[in-house]
Amino acid sequence: MPRPPLTPAEYWDLYKPYRGEGEQPAPSADRFEWTQFPGHGPGPELLGTPRTALELGPGEGAEAVHLARRGAQVTAVDFSALQIARARRWWSHIPGVTFLHADVCDFLMSEATEYDAIYSVWGAVWFTDPERLLPLVAKRLTPGGVFVFSHAEAGPGTHGAQQMRGKWLEGRQRELTVLRWQYGPAAWADLLRRSGFTHVDACIVPPPEDEPLGTLLVRAEVA
Question: Which of 123, 146, 143, 141 is nearest to 76 (CA)?
Fold first, then answer.
């Protein structure tokens, strides 16, 4: 039986809550999670076997560490100083992964390094204007490189930049309003193709039984 559609208020309430300082130990890096449901959906095989990878918005850093343990050299960039400090504290003993505090667009414009894979798991792709971000990502991929990202499927009545409020952002005690860009698979595919990507595959990964919110998952390549 089809699930009833979510109201806008219900949709925004389903975003993963911020986990504050000291509220839980470091997350496990045993599995690479694209969705918000542990053990659900595909894993790092979507990235192939990159020698070098860049994560945009790593948060707690579990996915970056997972790739590093598989042999990749991973750079992980996040605009949140608090998240980067936490990731460095938890994972400083892991070789092959570097956590940097920076705005992702500033980083992509200032660095000349190219990567075999660039990815984002419910991270910076969601919170950055794609008209600005996607061309920068395309320029920083090696020939044949892949770009993969995920975030929550678009909610009811949402398209384009949507305001998001919450005290959890960056661990702030007061609410901070940011924008996150909401598009369905077809719109993301069009944006990527216009930014120079090929072999675009954009879909919704259905949620587990009894869960209302699926995950948008997008994979694209550069020639």
Answer: 123
Strand order across the 198-205 sheet: 97-101, 73-78, 52-56, 115-121, 141-152, 215-221, 198-205
Measured CA distances, 111 to 107, 143, 192 (Å): 6, 17, 21
Model-level pTM? 0.84
CA distances from residue 44 to 63, 69, 135, 148 in whole angstroms, order as listed: 9, 12, 23, 10
Q: Two tokens at 181?
A: 């860009």
218 DSSP β-pair partners: 149, 202
Q: Is residue 155 a contact partner of residue 171, using CB atoms and an 8 Å limit?
A: no
* pLDDT tens-digit readout, 69-101: 999 999 999 998 888 999 999 999 999 999 999
Partners of 177 in beta bridges: 165
